[in-house]
Design brief:
Layout lengths: L4 H11 L12 H25 L5 H21 L7 H27 L2 H24 L3 H5 L11
Length: about 160
């Protein structure tokens, strides 16, 4: 028995895991954006771990995180967004750009060696990270929301 196009779509929809937010379907866009988000977070963690071993200090390590976030944003922005999620996608893009900016600033301040300024800037990065997480939740990127990352505490004095 062949399924009609409408029947196939309905069958596919039922087979997919529903999102946390019932208003956002777990469709191809959500799955793709979710996978990209998870992979990007894992790359951030790997870059952060590598930065802890960087002999050039924490500034160089924070600088290494900027292109990871930039690539995440670029790849995310390249995805065609369903019309019902344009605002949520824009919010994530803005949040990712903000964290790029904050990480760049943190790298500069950390290289200068001021512990108090580095800690203050790290707090701004944490705040920006929170905005990314809010945007991830708003897009119902449920697998990504489960992945947690945290930037290393600056240790230079």
């Amino acid at each position: 028995m062949r399924l009609s196009t409408n029947s196939r779509q309905a069958a596919t929809f039922v087979a997919l895991k529903p999102s946390e937010d019932d208003s956002i379907p777990r469709d191809a866009y959500t799955i793709s954006a979710d996978r990209l988000c998870v992979e990007s977070k894992r790359q951030i963690v790997a870059a952060e771990r590598q930065s802890l071993r960087d002999p050039n200090g924490p500034g160089a390590g924070f600088s290494a995180l900027v292109p990871v976030v930039s690539n995440w944003r670029s790849e995310f922005e390249a995805k065609p967004v369903p019309t019902d999620r344009i605002d949520q996608a824009r919010a994530l893009s803005i949040a990712l750009r903000e964290i790029e900016i904050e990480l760049s600033g943190l790298a500069v301040v950390a290289e200068e060696g001021s512990r108090s300024r580095t800690i203050a800037r790290a707090r701004q990065v944490d705040k920006a990270s929170g905005e990314v997480e809010k945007a991830v939740a708003a897009l119902a990127l449920s697998e990504c929301a489960k992945e947690t990352i945290g930037f290393a505490k600056p240790t230079n004095g």
